[in-house]
Amino acid sequence: MEKHITLPLTEELAKTLHAGDTVYLTGTIYTSRDAGHKRMCEALSRGEELPFDPRDATIYYVGPTPAKPGCVIGSAGPTTSGRMDAYAPTMLSVGARGMIGKGARLPEVVEAMKKYNGVYFGAIGGAGALLAKCIKKAELIAFEDLGAEALRRLYVEDMPLVVVIDCEGNNLYEEGRRAYLQTRK
Question: Which residues pair with 156 in a beta bridge?
């Protein structure tokens, strides 16, 4: 099913999404990769607040390239999500709800998604220049020393994604494989 979603990704909205849905996200998302996630989780363990409000937030696992003159951002393709698996349960526990990346997730992440009603969206790898066209605003908000891995706030319009894992733990990668194997019999 195709859905147009305006963020934030509330718990109620997350529950309407199902593995395999095509979605077009519009609204504010945040960027971070493993180094940024490590810093955020360390801050949380010290009792500190994050540089943004994680409640109902969607985090895009991306390290964008520098913007060319006249552009908001450079190429912005997804990073392999498994690099954030050590941090995703903590981020979900403080209210983050959506994750955008590519590749499989560990069972611990899927369990945290079920517990906190999280959703994992897949973005097309290798299509960073195309995805960058959906980004209308980009603002550095923390960890500037991390370069491409710095924490950014982005405003996106109609960013094309697929729900890979929904908040019930249904996994398109597994379901798709089973369906394919059934057709091969």
Answer: 27, 135
Half-sphere exposure of 117 (CA within 13 A, CB side): 13
Per-residue pLDDT of the chain (185 residues; tens, 9 = 90+): 899 999 999 999 999 999 999 999 999 999 999 999 999 999 999 999 999 999 999 999 999 999 989 899 999 999 999 999 999 999 999 999 999 999 999 999 999 999 999 999 999 887 888 899 999 999 999 999 999 999 999 999 999 999 999 999 999 988 766 665 566 66
Question: Would you call 5 exposed, middle or buried from its count of C-beta atoms within 10 A (0-12, 13-18, 19+)?
Answer: buried
